[in-house]
């Protein structure tokens, strides 16, 4: 017996609302945004076919997600807007559902344009709505549109209202988002009680997990690990955080991960390594339309890598229009900090002046670029801008304030960086009392950096030798069991170590990239070229490097013979020790027959090994002479490829 049209219609209605229920459960209960989008997409298509206006509107709202601007590509964003507008045209304009659709449309538009007028008008209207769900949704959307530094007080009010509304809606998602927003707002404000609210949020998630909210908590925890100076641990946490974000279907997962790695490399003094990745990331379709922070980072990385044309181009792209017109998004303070650093590197005082004026009202805030990463006090960026303007009095005051605020934030890498910059500003100013204060700040920075294993960022180059030797090339020479590092009239002796050997090679080859694996290998891979050519894997050491190491072995053999003939036992012993170490490295890194081990399995271990060894060597140099040590921290870069890049 055939089913009647009424029966068919009833079944379709049931199917549509079943899909809507499943979508709501995925998004609001479990936090699986990707699954929710799938369910809402099917619900929208089915509702469209059968002309179910209310279901179409509910599905279109669901496709928007819990955050604003989850659809990043032009096609996806336009499609969502078209569906929302079509649904709105069919609804009773005075209904709570129509209010919710208008609010989502306004939020999507305002978020991308940087305007706030439309969503704030609808917020006032929503507060008088009899529908608590409409009130809660508009409160959440408005909060998402106000993440820039100008609206802290209003955001805090909205988060409290949202928690209050959760008692009326009975929806756990409203409570979770309210507490999450309070947590984020407190961190954005640099409030010392932010950790308490984070603890409360963790307790809520322990009772019942929510993937999307849990992902944001994970991102905050990465930020806190970076602040604590646990950079290696933070990098591991960031990779786990990325996986959580991908599992939740959060469109920010890739961008936040990239921002975290950027911050880690900055405080490791290795930002230039990210230049190719930043070029790609600045063009990523996964970035928010309001996010320009990666282009600012690209300008800094290019400047540090010595590519002034690329740095100038990236900075010009940001400054093509008035800087004041750039959207005040959650990443705005981080972006402005990057613009200040680039302006200093490029000696662009006009841009630095604009940055200084725009940042001054926000001097009390930390530079948090989304909840995922923090670059310390805004006072530091103001100091950088003042340096670029050659306003040394202002720079010194801002860096002093930055040190205090970074200590209050427990952001140790940022505190180290601000101390170094303060020393730089004082050295450049050159008042009678400045040299002593600069030495004190450099010593404190060196001690903290050594405790944390930090190298520090390599931005900016002071001009005064009292606190730094950044404008001078150092010379490194072996003297028995020790190494002498000298520049101008300054010199220091440090004990031999593997890190010093790496450092000596880099200093002897200024502005030349040397692979970390070649530094680790030493004299390995002295096998013949024919055997290497037969292997598909890349050898650890190329022929030119092998020849150089063979020559060093011959020198050592001659040195031993000469020392013995002159009865210089200590000199002979030192030469034998170095020869034996090189021979041990050969045995460790070569295959049977003298062939080189494969590059592929060793490169990552080499990067880590060289980085740690060089940092330890620089730490020892800094203990003996803070000026030379500070120079090396800013000019020696380690990674897959390592270099010494003096001014």
Which short descriptors sum up this protein?
647 residues; mainly alpha; three-stranded antiparallel sheet; 67% helix; elongated; disordered N terminus
**Quantity of strands, as a count:** 8
Fraction in helix? 55-70%
Radius of gyration: 29 Å
Describe the sheet with the most strands: 3 strands, antiparallel
Secondary structure tally, helices = 29
Short recap of the structure:
The chain has helices spanning about 5-30, 35-50, 55-65, 75-90, 95-115, 115-125, 130-145, 150-170, 170-190, 195-205, 210-225, 230-250, 255-270, 275-280, 295-305, 310-320, 330-345, 350-360, 380-390, 390-410, 410-430, 435-450, 500-510, 515-520, 530-535, 545-565, 570-590, 605-625, 625-635, and strands spanning about 365-370, 375, 475-480, 480-485, 490-495, 515, 635, 640-645. It has about 650 residues and is mainly alpha-helical. The strands form three sheets. The protein has a three-stranded antiparallel beta sheet with strand order 3-4-5, with helices on one face.
Please tell me about this protein's structure.
The longest helix is centred in the N-terminal third of the chain and has 26 residues, at 5-30. The radius of gyration is 29 Å and the shape is elongated. The chain is 67% helix and 5% strand. Strand 7 and strand 8 (641-644) form a beta hairpin. It is mainly alpha-helical and 647 residues long. Helix 5 runs parallel beside helix 7 (132-145).
């Amino acid at each position: 017996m055939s089913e009647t049209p009424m029966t068919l219609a009833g079944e379709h209605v049931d199917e549509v609302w079943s899909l809507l229920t499943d979508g709501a459960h995925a998004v609001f209960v479990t936090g699986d945004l990707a699954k929710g989008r799938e369910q809402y997409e099917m619900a929208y298509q089915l509702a469209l076919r059968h002309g179910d206006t209310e279901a179409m509107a509910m599905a279109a709202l669901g496709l928007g997600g819990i955050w604003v601007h989850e659809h990043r590509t032009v096609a996806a964003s336009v499609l969502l807007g078209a569906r929302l507008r079509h649904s709105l045209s069919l609804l009773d304009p005075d209904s709570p559902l129509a209010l919710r659709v208008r609010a989502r449309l306004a939020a999507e538009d305002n978020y991308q344009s940087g305007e706030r007028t439309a969503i704030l008008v609808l917020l006032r209207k929503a507060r008088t709505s009899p529908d608590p769900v409409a009130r809660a949704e508009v409160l959440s959307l408005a909060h998402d549109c106000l993440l820039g530094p100008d609206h802290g007080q209003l955001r805090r009010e909205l988060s409290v209202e949202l928690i209050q509304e959760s008692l009326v809606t009975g929806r756990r998602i409203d409570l979770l988002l309210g507490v999450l927003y309070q947590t984020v707002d407190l961190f954005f404000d640099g409030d010392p009680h932010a950790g308490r609210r984070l603890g409360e949020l963790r307790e809520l998630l322990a009772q019942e997990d929510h993937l999307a909210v849990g992902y944001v908590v994970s991102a905050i925890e990465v930020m806190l690990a970076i602040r604590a100076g646990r950079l290696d641990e933070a990098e591991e946490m960031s990779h786990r955080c990325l996986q959580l974000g991908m599992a939740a279907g959060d469109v920010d997962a890739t961008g936040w991960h990239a921002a975290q790695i950027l911050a880690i490399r900055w405080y490791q003094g290795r930002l230039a390594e990210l230049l190719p990745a930043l070029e790609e990331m600045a063009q990523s379709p996964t970035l928010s339309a309001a996010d320009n922070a990666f282009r600012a980072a690209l300008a800094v990385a290019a400047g540090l890598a010595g590519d002034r044309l690329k740095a100038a181009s990236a900075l010009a792209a940001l400054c093509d229009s008035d800087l004041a017109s750039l959207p005040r998004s959650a990443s705005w303070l981080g972006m402005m900090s990057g613009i200040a650093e680039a302006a200093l590197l490029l000696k662009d005082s006009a841009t630095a002046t604009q940055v200084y004026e725009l940042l001054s009202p926000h001097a009390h805030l930390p530079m948090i670029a989304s909840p995922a990463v923090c670059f310390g006090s805004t006072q530091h960026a103001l100091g950088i801008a003042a340096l670029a303007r050659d306003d040394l009095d202002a720079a010194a005051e801002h860096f002093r304030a930055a040190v205090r605020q970074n200590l209050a934030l427990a952001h140790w890498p940022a505190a180290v960086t601000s101390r170094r910059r303060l020393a730089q500003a004082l050295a450049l100013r050159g008042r009678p009392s400045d040299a002593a204060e600069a030495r004190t700040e450099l010593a404190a920075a060196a001690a903290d950096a050594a405790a944390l294993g930090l190298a520090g960022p390599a931005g900016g180059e002071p001009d005064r030798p009292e606190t730094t030797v950044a404008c001078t090339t150092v010379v490194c020479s072996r003297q028995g069991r020790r190494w002498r590092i000298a520049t101008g009239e300054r010199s220091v002796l440090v004990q031999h170590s593997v890190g010093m050997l790496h450092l000596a090679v880099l200093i002897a080859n200024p502005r030349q990239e040397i692979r970390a694996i070649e530094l680790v290998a030493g004299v390995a891979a002295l096998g013949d070229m024919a055997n290497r050519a037969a292997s598909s894997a890349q050898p650890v050491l190329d022929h030119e490097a092998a020849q150089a190491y063979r020559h060093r072995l011959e020198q050592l053999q001659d040195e031993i013979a000469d020392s013995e003939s002159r009865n210089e036992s200590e000199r002979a012993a030192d030469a034998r020790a170095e020869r034996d170490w090189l021979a041990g490295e050969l045995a460790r890194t070569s295959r049977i027959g003298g062939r080189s081990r494969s590059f592929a399995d060793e490169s990552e271990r080499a990067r880590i090994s060289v980085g740690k060894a060089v940092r330890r060597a620089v730490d020892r140099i800094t203990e003996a002479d803070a000026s030379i040590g500070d120079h090396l921290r800013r000019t020696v870069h380690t990674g897959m490829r390592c270099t010494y890049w003096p001014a």
